[in-house]
Design goal:
The chain is mainly alpha-helical. It is built from 10 helices and no strands. One of its GO terms (molecular function) is transcription cis-regulatory region binding.
């Protein structure tokens, strides 16, 4: 006889948690893949790509903003892991330029992701989410200033803001069709070289 409970509720709590985590992983995997591929992705498209219903998706991420933040967190976990493997030894000026070139593929991947979430999160939240990576750049700039490779007459915070803004400006120019993905890292490096060098 039916007891009024759902099949989901009758499953052990550990299994329900495992099922929920699998759904979350499917949502984030599908969302990151779609959000990174093109602008204008809908939540319904994410649910379909994840193979779940919209009700299930909203059960885990009650708003588009919550989904956007979770996708950015997932993307930045991968980006931060990649930066941990970056070799930052050697002259600071050369190292910064090499790192920007080597890591541009991650910035390029996140270009469409940023376009998809820009209306869902605040600029302040987005900037703060970049802090772990910007801290690595800050350490590199500081070392370059100590070595005489970088100018010291500008505030460090401004030099970081300039890099952050130029990276996103390059991404916007690619989206607008005024810059190619091949041109962007070299133009970015040249722009920062003229700004940072004494």
């Amino acid at each position: 006889m039916a007891d009024g409970t759902t099949a989901s509720a009758r499953r052990p709590s550990g299994q329900r948690r495992a099922d929920a985590q699998r759904n979350i992983d499917k949502i984030l995997d599908a969302g990151l893949r779609l959000y990174s591929s093109r602008p204008g992705v809908s939540v319904a498209e994410v649910a379909e790509a994840a193979g779940i219903g919209r009700v299930t998706l909203y059960g885990h991420f009650p708003s588009r903003t919550e989904l956007a933040k979770a996708l950015m967190d997932r993307a930045f976990e991968e980006t931060e892991a990649a930066w941990r493997d970056v070799d930052t030894t050697g002259p600071a000026g050369d190292t910064l330029e090499r790192v920007l070139r080597e890591q541009w593929h991650l910035m390029e991947r996140n270009r469409n992701l940023r376009d998809n979430i820009i209306g869902d999160v605040s600029p302040q939240w987005l900037r703060a989410r970049h802090d772990p990576i910007l801290k690595r750049i800050e350490d590199l700039i500081t070392r370059g200033q100590d070595d005489g490779a970088f100018r010291t007459d500008l505030p460090l915070s401004w030099m970081l803001t300039a890099l952050y803004s130029l990276v996103h400006a390059a991404a916007d120019e690619i989206t607008a069709g005024r810059l190619t993905t091949e041109q962007a890292p070299e133009i970015l490096v040249a722009s920062l070289r003229s700004l940072y060098r004494p």
